[in-house]
Amino acid sequence: MCYTDPVNKNLTLTFDADLLKAARRFALEHDTTVNQMVRDFLQQVLVKKDPKKAALAELERIFRTCSVTVGKRDWTRDDLHERR
């Protein structure tokens, strides 16, 4: 599910101190933030009933979190289509 509203809105949540401490530790270990974890959770809850939206949300998550490094190209288009 992708919201296109470019304006972020603030929301204040209240957590038990131990829960928040554990959440912060978890977020740090997983290179994320508690805010992002809450956003991801809400997104999952909202798209859970719609398989198409769930698939789109998963793709968006993958695109946000994955990267690929491609090495130096040492071939030409002609090399690829060379007839032997």
Write a compact overview of the structure shown:
Helices cover 55% and strands 0% of the residues. It is mainly α and 84 residues long. The chain is elongated and about 70 Å long.
Give an account of the 3D structure.
This protein is 55% helix and 0% strand. It is mainly α. The longest helix has 15 residues, at 51-65. The chain is elongated and about 70 Å long.
Mean pLDDT over the residues: 84
- Strand/helix succession: HHHH
The quaternary organization reads as single chain
Q: What is the terminal-to-terminal distance?
A: 49 Å
* Structure class: mainly alpha
Q: Poorly predicted ranges (pLDDT <50, ≥5 residues)?
A: none
Categorize the overall geometry: elongated
Helix content: 40-55%
Number of strands: 0
User: Main β-sheet, in a few words?
Assistant: none
* Structural Rg: 20 Å
Strand content: under 5%
Helix count equals 4
